[in-house]
């Protein structure tokens, strides 16, 4: 048991926590960071990074197959073993030692323990008790949400963790939920050989995006052999044990008690998961992936010791301060503003600058309007409003659509490369307030829209930013022409 | 012989001319367009489009080979025949009939003839004499420049036309000139099997771009087996006829007299081209590609009939008007402002809006600072100033560099994916005035920079435009952090 005083304590070393700690330390403060699992967090090991690693080989291959001259060289099949090996490399075999030097170089003290508030500006980290002279930053992230479906826990479902670290493709995979995690991992495993069923209770996938995005992703999933069940509500789940059910029972999702990261995907759950649907039908799989949302990790943070309670996200203001306490901040997914790695890092910069006393501005655009990419094929890249969300917000808007692949630059990127580009224009202000691009490999088209939207560049100026010929970015030209410019 | 009156006559149906005609017609004017060769112009058949078609297969294949899981499926070699077939498809086998409906739908009259001014607002087009009520728009483009090197013409060199339409890869190709055309076609043919020598008189390739761009392209060319001769000045050229020199003598470059497009690359020139260098060395090839710049096509335009002369570009003001005549415009490469297809189309929109009496603004950023992409591997994408050009312009600037591939998003795009990203910041105004990206497949990263530069988005605002994780656009984050934001 030791006591120690620093300027700032950061709880959680995912991207948001690490970035806060790094920036604060670079700003001259003495910083300690407390992490119970891996430096780099969910994103680096069990979410963004491995899911993209699993998706990418099929996309690179599909693109080569669309390009004449290249396609003839592609005789073989995607090598699942090699793809999984590369995934393991990208997640560093769940070893975070490579991340330690980054903290060390910045003089950030690392405590490998569960961090818990113990009164004002005090954080317990295992045997250590830390006092923060200036601030405590909570960046504890989220866990997979467990929906109230009968029998779910006992059926030993996969969460994102098992689904991103599995050592082999399950023969049959049932995915519960057609949000971002659901569609990405359904497509990834289908491309790696699994027979996938996707069960979504609503009538649309990735429902917050433009309707055409969900439709196009649904079509692509079906083309890839995924059995997509829309408007299908799961009523109960069970696991029927098979004769070879020798695999250990895995931990339940949302289990806060595990001390070390566990790649629970390294062994099959055994038997067969059966999902009963409301309409009387049922679907079966060797594994069942739970992808129905995330729950902020607020339990066990000791919020009660500073007079707070939270059974949802840890609410913050635009400077990432919690409850007007002055010394307590929350950044990243735990605050629920925009559960995206890049926005967590953005919030970390905002909070750090605030703590450092730099006259920084408040967070902008970090709610549901934040830039976002879904890395399926077709990819979906969006920023700001959809047409519907703009209308709901009462803005006088007009949308212009154009086929993403309908420009000369797409000739070189495969004939299948269609998709849709949409801009949403605020008619009163003459600026973009939203843009969505779908199609193969559109992720890098997004940042131009983000700058236009966040920069509030008037359309009258935007027309002078000329996309180069023959790039696919020329779709901008068509969109602006479609608006009448 | 017929006489006819229309609102506007456009001379030249390349991208600039076509876009001017189309926009004017859509604006309600009666328009005639005069074209002596192919609708779509140099760009569509002998420049941008085929060169990208020749470059793309190797790049798509290289990318698939960099991605584990995909690479194992790529057992074969690039199929040169298939690549050339696709190139032929992209240039429509030099048949422009597919372009005719676009003009017809807009009611634009097409005259297939050489267009020539014959006094104020009058254009001769073969047997037709056109009178323009409002304006004449010259969009006659450029031809390959013929440098004063002894013996050049007699050596039957290729221009961009033969080099983009050749029916087979020459066994040995000598490229004279290391500008955009030279480096793109050197790399394209090397990837298709030619043994290439690139001769550049200066000490740097693509000299107007950031020095690191030329260096990286040079290294890539050498890695691809191209024999790059820097600081090598050609003093004379000759063709030594071989025993099998049965091929017809091809037209000389810059020959204005040809009535129909000729794919002179369909037969080898025969014998061996020998280039003597200043240092006493010589290089030899089956074909010799001339890529030392372009000459505006002003001869034969009848400029003298309206009191003008031009032995260089047809100078225009920022509204694309020539010589203060009020009725004469020049758009696209012939005006020399920014010889790039997208800027020609931009100028066409400016001129058309001017003629239509729309209160449009003048052209901005269409000089050497215009957005530009070189489609080699690594690609080079740039907008606005380089560090050198900004300093020469007397701006108080600071540059920030970051490896283009130094972000998480690059993990999925091949390990070779490095390159350099540079922003050039105007310190007084706090805005970007230039950006350059090099690396594989960076073309689509450019438009974000173009919007930031042309939109003059303050850096203090730009920091709130957050690149999505894990995209390669996150290099923006590092660049802004490098600047101190």
> Which regions of chain A are unreliable across 5 or more consecutive residues at pLDDT < 50?
245-263
Radius of gyration of chain A: 23 Å
**Terminal Cα span of chain A:** 68 Å
CATH 4th-level superfamily of the largest domain in chain A: FAD/NAD(P)-binding domain
Q: Which shape of chain A, going by the Cα principal axes?
A: globular
Would you tell me the structural class of the helices and strands of chain A? alpha/beta
Question: What is the mean predicted local confidence, pLDDT of chain A?
Answer: 93
What is the CATH-assigned architecture of the largest domain in chain A?
3-Layer(bba) Sandwich
The proportion of residues in beta strands of chain A is 15-25%
Most residues in contact: chain pair: A-B, 87 and 87 residues
Fraction of helical residues of chain A = 25-40%
Q: Which fold name is given in CATH as the topology of the largest domain in chain A? A: FAD/NAD(P)-binding domain
Count of separate structural domains of chain A: 3
CATH top level label of the largest domain in chain A: Alpha Beta
| Multimerization state | homodimer
């Amino acid at each position: 048991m030791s006591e120690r005083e620093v300027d700032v304590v950061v709880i959680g070393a995912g991207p948001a926590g690490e970035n806060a700690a790094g920036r604060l330390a670079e700003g001259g403060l003495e910083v300690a960071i407390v992490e119970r699992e891996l430096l780099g967090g969910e994103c680096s090991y069990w979410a963004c990074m491995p899911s993209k690693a699993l998706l990418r080989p099929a996309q690179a291959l599909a693109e080569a197959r669309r390009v004449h001259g290249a396609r003839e060289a592609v005789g073989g099949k995607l090598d699942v073993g090699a793809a999984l090996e590369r995934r393991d490399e990208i997640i560093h075999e769940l070893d975070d030692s490579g991340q330690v030097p980054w903290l060390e170089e910045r003089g950030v003290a690392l405590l490998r323990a569960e961090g818990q508030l113990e009164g004002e500006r005090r954080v317990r980290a295992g045997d250590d008790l830390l006092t923060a002279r200036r601030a405590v930053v909570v960046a504890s992230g989220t866990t997979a949400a467990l929906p109230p479906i009968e029998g779910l826990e006992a059926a030993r479902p996969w969460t994102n963790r098992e689904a991103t670290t599995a050592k082999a493709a399950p023969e049959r995979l049932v995915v519960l939920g057609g949000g971002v995690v659901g569609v990405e991992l359904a497509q990834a495993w289908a491309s790696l050989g699994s027979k996938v069923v996707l069960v979504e209770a609503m009538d649309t996938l990735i429902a917050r995006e433009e309707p055409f995005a969900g439709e196009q992703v649904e079509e692509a999933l079906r083309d890839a052999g995924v059995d997509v069940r829309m408007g299908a509500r799961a009523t109960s789940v069970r696991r029927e044990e098979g004769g070879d059910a020798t695999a250990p029972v895995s931990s339940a999702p949302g289990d806060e008690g595990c001390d070390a990261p566990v790649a629970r995907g390294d062994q099959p759950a055994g038997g067969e998961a059966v999902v009963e649907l409301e309409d009387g039908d049922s679907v079966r799989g060797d594994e069942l992936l739970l992808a129905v949302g995330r729950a902020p990790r607020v339990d066990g943070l000791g919020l009660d010791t500073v007079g707070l309670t939270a059974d949802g996200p840890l609410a913050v203001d635009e400077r990432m301060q919690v409850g007007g306490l002055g010394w307590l901040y929350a950044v990243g997914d735990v605050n629920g503003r925009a559960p995206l790695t890049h926005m967590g890092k953005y919030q970390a910069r905002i909070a750090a600058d605030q703590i450092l006393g730099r006259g920084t501005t408040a967070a902008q655009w970090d709610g549901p309007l934040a830039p976002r990419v879904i890395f399926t094929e077709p990819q979906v890249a969006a920023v700001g409003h959809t047409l519907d969300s703009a209308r709901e917000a009462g803005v006088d808007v007009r949308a212009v659509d154009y086929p993403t692949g309908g420009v000369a630059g797409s000739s070189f990127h495969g004939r299948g490369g269609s998709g849709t580009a949409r801009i949403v224009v605020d008619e009163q202000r003459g600026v973009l307030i939203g843009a969505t691009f779908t199609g193969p490999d559109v992720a890098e088209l997004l940042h131009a829209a983000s700058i236009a939207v966040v920069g509030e560049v008037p359309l009258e100026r935007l027309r002078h930013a000329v996309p180069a010929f023959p790039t696919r970015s020329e779709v901008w030209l068509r969109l602006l022409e479609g608006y009448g410019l």
